[in-house]
Amino acid sequence: MHEISLVRNIFRTLEEEFPADMDRIRGIYLKADYSRTCSQS
Question: Could you tell me the residue ranges of all domains in the chain?
Answer without folding.
Answer: 1-41
